Amino acid sequence: MTDPADWSRAADPARRIGHAVEFHAEILSTNDRARDALTEPGGEGLAVVADLQTAGRGRRGRTWISPAGVNLLFSVAWRPAIAPRVAGLLGGSAALAVRDACAALVPDAGLAVRWPNDLVDAEGRKVAGLLVETALEGGELTEAVVGIGINVNWLPAEMPREIGGSATSLRVLLGSPIDRVALLGSVLSALDAEMGALERGESPLPRVRAVSWLDGRQVEVDTGAATIAGRVAGIADDGSLLLDAEVGRLALSVGEVVRVHEAVPAAVAQ
Ligand code: BTN
Questions:
Q1: What span, in angstroms and rounded, lies between the C-alpha atoms of 70 and 126?
Q2: Ligand 1: which residue has its CA nearest to atom 11?
Q3: CB-CB contact of 130 with 58 (8 Å)
Q4: Which ligand 1 atom minimizes the distance to the CA of 57?
Q5: Distance from chain centroid for Cα 190
Q6: What is the pLDDT of residues 15-30, one digit of tens each?
Q7: What atom of ligand 1 comes closest to residue 60's alpha carbon?
Q8: What is the pLDDT of residues 145-159, one digit of tens each?
């Protein structure tokens, strides 16, 4: 377990995102606390971290499961100076920040981004998940809450059976325990840089495409309205998934890849 006071090592007052860290031994969801903090002085960019979430949530209404004190669970909320049409890129920018910070620890693990914004290892096992929640008012993007759950020191024997086969952790990939506070510091620093770039009009997509795990793979995507099979052709400029389906090329702005067929794309075959 990390000493609660240690978490402040991850803060840097010079940063907008992650200028301060607020630690909770237990909380419902760090996303909710980060959003509430936006109305408080100094709350914008505050990193809210917890050892345990009792109502941690994932995308599409899923529960985010993580044992106490093992992984990295945190959220940051701020008022992004970007147009609503660019909001679809927030997840890509954040996923890239998480990938880069984690890849510095395990450079040989083939860490990649799986659309929309999961972090996976070379075999497609999930290392981290991101939940981006935004609010619009009068046609303006008024807030963004980015919640990040990284499997840091979780051992396979401790993972629930339903996720054990499809998830891994940085500790497994590295072969030794990882300092969660140092990792939080480097993710916050990468996140601050990525969000600054997005606000300056720089798209993260060329770099997301370079580390996209799904390209060329045969998948099934649940859009909420239907499950569509096809081959992933890439990522569109607005962050949508390009899928070559039976009906032709589709750009899917929302959805979840629910199945990936085994064949390895020619471009990445050994
Ligand atoms: C997903 O893969 O479905 C997204 C998972 C996001 C989980 C993180 S953990 C910290 C933050 N608080 C939450 O309640 N969810 C996010």
A1: 16
A2: 147
A3: no
A4: 14
A5: 12
A6: 999 999 999 999 999 9
A7: 3
A8: 999 999 999 999 999
